[in-house]
Amino acid sequence: MHINTSLTTTLTIGGNYKGYETMTELKNTIDVKLAFPLWKGVLTLLFGAIIWFIPPPSGLAVTAWHMFAIFAATIFAIILKVLPMGAVTMIALIVSALTGVTPLTAKGEQVAALSGFANGTIWLIGIAMFISRAVIKTGLGKRVALWFISKCGSSMLGVAYGLALSDLVLGPGIPSASARGGGIMYPITQSIATAYQSEPGPTARKAGAFLMLCVSQIDAIVCTMFLTAMAGNPLVAELARSQGVEISWTIWFVGAIVPGIASLILLPLVLWFFYPPELKKTPEIPGIARQELSKMGPMSLAEKILALDFVLLILLWTVGDIFFAIPATLSAFVGLAILLVSNIMSWKNIAEEKTAWDTMFWFAVLVMMANALNKYGMISWISEKIVGYVGHFDWLTVFLLLVLVYFYTRYFFASAMAHISAMYLAFLAVAISVGTPPLFAALVLGYTSNLSMGLTQYSGGPGPALFGSGYNTTGQWWGVSFIVSIASILIWLLLGGAWMKLLGFW
User: Fold this and answer.
1) Cα-Cα-Cα-Cα dihedral sign, residues 372, 374, 379, 384
2) Is the model's pLDDT at 21 over the cut of 60?
3) How many C-beta atoms surround the C-beta of residue 12 within 10 A?
4) First and final CA of the chain: distance in angstroms?
5) What is the pLDDT of residues 218-238, one digit of tens each?
6) Rounded to two decimals, what is the model's pTM?
7) Alpha-carbon distance 97 to 105, whole Å?
């Protein structure tokens, strides 16, 4: 068989920053226009206004109802993609402050509009994103992925496991499914498929179609295993805290480790059985990966320092809070400081990391609104109403129903953040109200937030890039992913539930 021996791993190493353009270059060509389709803006405004002017239900304060109106309109705008999330949440913050629902300076039982920016959790996720940039900038992520492929890639199933191990190693320090799956795994996966003449169309099932779905599912599992593997996980932890449940990095990891490893082993096999590649053996791939590693040369000093920094962070996140009283956010600051002092990351790199700053902004606003909904009584009111209908069932039955509804409503959301923001807190409150052990409920719903990312090509993570490669049809993606979702739910509820029972989480 003739194969293309050039395994091109087209990773972007570092950002492409052009600096400021001169006035001559600009030439006053700014196109002044409405930044969003008018109908989307009008629809969002009407949606929020209708809720706002409806008299609040009995037992609910006006402030709580108005906060709900602002929150609902914000989630609606995020789903419609009226503007980027940062812009949408900024407008929501302005509206809530101007109306006095969450004033800038809070008094009494009010929630301050800017209170979310003082939350340590947003800094944890932001700093983790800064560190993840170093992983891409130095080429360490690419090296790790190629090394595992060189060891496991003699069969197509082995390639899948090599990608899984790569994602698992990188997961704790890269809080972006898109960065890992789309920025590191996807180029390598694409190159492997191309090497065996597997292209979109008639030859897609040869290799590419299987591998793209594998990366999607693997990335969702890895997101589930670490608090810092996905930006939404710290949001989950923060929302859980508002219900009196404390979730540390260690608790999240310990609860997920057994079902997570089982999923990484079993789900590629499920895909192999229901959607097998036509090409089973890939004996040339390890050699090609080794060639690419050889081209990269030995590990640079920057990569070595970054790898040691990675290990230090995992140790601090795992045992620092327990034995040394070092919070996870402070540990992240230590890790970032090492990279700054060693010049692996410059302050300019930090300032130019737009994704991190953007995430921190909308994260802070969403946390503020969630806290306000909780403090003003909206969440407890919703919980009481739902419990009134399902409270006669035992807690396990109700909780299983909540998990299934929470999982499959992901079909209606194109954003993990929108899904978590809209549903997590209310579902957790209901689960606790019917008697579900709080920590167990908080963790399972948090894990479900990630596992459901693999359902569709738009539900988050690297899905758009992987599906956009053209190897899979929508029907194939949805059909196979639904089958995998059943296996995933069974693993996490049965094996994961038994494991968390053993840990004393319920």
Assistant:
1) negative
2) no
3) 11
4) 55
5) 999 999 999 988 888 988 998
6) 0.83
7) 9
